[in-house]
Write a sequence for this structure.
């Protein structure tokens, strides 16, 4: 399947980066709710994109303070072009955004995160001071007790380990990177943590290099 749909209506991308102040509030914002609400999503610069997953990441932020929506801004994450290469700095950074230490990280599961400052302006690829050697999932989990960030890197490249578990401490240092033995390269989008365990599922959608070479969706279902 390779249908390129022309976006319309609410699916149209936003074409401009805007900054606005003192937004009208319908209803009421709780006065004790203060901070930055930010979300991320695909927003192709060119209008259409080859697939909804492939649009360039755009952050939308609302600064909330004392019952006011003090400011709004939207900014593209300024990434290197996402090309079929093993360069982990290439990403669309369009899937999730988290606060980590003093920075925001825009995430997309095939690459390094992108660091973004408090004004939503891109700093650059973030690799934990050179310590991260794998992609980073878009769905890391923060331990509510220690503040540690648990995450994984799943690679579809047959030359790379399929799955690596990572843990960063609350100070932002990558303190654990451990390969996990799994039967193959699967499409692993998410995982779970408990008080004592990290849970990975042995998932049935597997990477297929032959299909990748043919230029089709590089995954297939596997019953085994
Ligand atoms: Fe997701």
């Amino acid at each position: 399947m390779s249908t390129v749909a022309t976006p319309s209506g609410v699916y149209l991308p936003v074409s401009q980066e805007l900054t606005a102040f003192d937004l009208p509030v319908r209803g009421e914002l709780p006065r004790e709710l203060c901070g930055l609400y930010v979300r991320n999503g695909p927003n192709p610069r060119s209008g259409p994109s080859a697939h909804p997953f492939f649009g360039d990441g755009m952050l939308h932020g609302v600064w909330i303070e004392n019952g006011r929506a003090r400011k709004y801004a939207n900014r593209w994450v300024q990434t290197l072009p996402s090309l079929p290469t093993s360069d982990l700095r290439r990403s669309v950074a369009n899937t999730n955004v988290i606060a980590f230490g003093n920075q925001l990280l825009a995430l997309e599961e095939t690459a390094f995160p992108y660091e973004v400052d408090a004004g939503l302006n891109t700093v650059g690829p973030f690799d934990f001071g050179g310590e991260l050697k794998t992609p980073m999932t878009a769905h890391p989990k923060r331990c509510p007790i220690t503040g540690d960030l648990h995450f994984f890197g799943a690679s579809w490249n047959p030359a790379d380990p399929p799955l690596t578990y990572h843990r960063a401490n609350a100070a932002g240092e990558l303190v654990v990177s451990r390969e996990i033995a799994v039967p193959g390269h699967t499409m692993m989008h998410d995982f779970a943590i408990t008080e004592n365990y990290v849970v990975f599922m042995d998932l049935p959608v597997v990477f297929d290099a032959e299909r990748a070479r043919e230029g089709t969706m590089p995954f297939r279902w596997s019953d085994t």
In short: The mean pLDDT is 91.
